[in-house]
UniProtKB/TrEMBL annotation:
Organism: Acanthochromis polyacanthus (spiny chromis)
Keywords, ordered alphabetically: Coiled coil, Disulfide bond, Glycoprotein, Golgi apparatus, Membrane, Signal-anchor, Transferase, Transmembrane, Transmembrane helix
Disordered: annotated segments: 1-39
Protein name per Swiss-Prot or TrEMBL: Heparan sulfate 2-O-sulfotransferase 1
Pfam family, one: Sulfotransfer_2
Recorded GO CC terms: Golgi membrane
Family according to the record: Belongs to the sulfotransferase 3 family.
Amino acid sequence: PMESGGEKTVDKRAIARHEVREIEQRHTQDGLRDRDSAATVSNSEDDVVIIYNRVPKTASTSFTNIAYDLCGKNHYHVLHINTTKNNPVMSLQDQVRFVKNVTEWREMKPAFYHGHVSFLDFTKFGVKRKPIYINVIRDPIERLVSYYYFLRFGDDYRPGLRRRKQGDKKTFDECVSAGGSDCAPEKLWLQIPFFCGHYSECWNVGSQWALEQAKYNLVNEYMLVGVTEELEDFVMMLEAALPRFFKGATELYKTGKKSHLRKTSEKKPPTKESIAKLQQSAIWKMENEFYEFALEQFQFVRAHAVREKDGELYLLAQNFFYEKIYPKN
């Protein structure tokens, strides 16, 4: 009986050794696999995707050109999302395709995507790593005036291109006093739905829910949202936060010929009366509330990141460190 007990023990040990060997082999294979996948994405910085879902007429072209100018030197890809008829809402099947592409298109990472698309929540599609969203918004009336003249006169970026309302010589003021549709308060409803996203209610003009959702997304889903009026500061903050993409951006913005691109031709500033008339509308009040909310948030972020000295802005150095690190070796 003793012998058989001893044999059992040997058996058990042999099996255990065999199992250990199997686990070790598996680990080595996993290690090799991990190493290979690590080689394709050398580090987490190279896996980053930025989405800039540009609101029309907010200086988005000027900003995007900085990304184009830097992508060669900083080694990332810039891709324009061109939607049919500039439709900011994607079909469900296109949303799935887009999320899949952005997430899995290894050869294009790191990437900077830009286009007139409303916010899309990647978590609903089960992805592990979300892209970084950024955006720029503008005073709603100024944005509308810019768009109004852009449709009539185009700009200096593609001067030969015929625009939708070309030949219509009516000024913005004339449009407002005549109650025209191109300068109607409904046309102000754009920045809210762009931030609100792909929900039906976002596109219901004047929806309180859409305003709240837009604010929620701005705070929770966007890394940084700048304002047209203070674009240089926005560029500077991005360079500080994401040097992998924006190293050299501030200098380029200050000295670049392209940074103030796309002046809308023939733009006449609206009169006080026109502005007052638009400001009476509930839609303006909501769009303006959203704009002020975004502006305040941007100024808050900036106040905690930069200081001004002799009229020059400079970034604060790192203000935290680690201590009381235990256990001691």
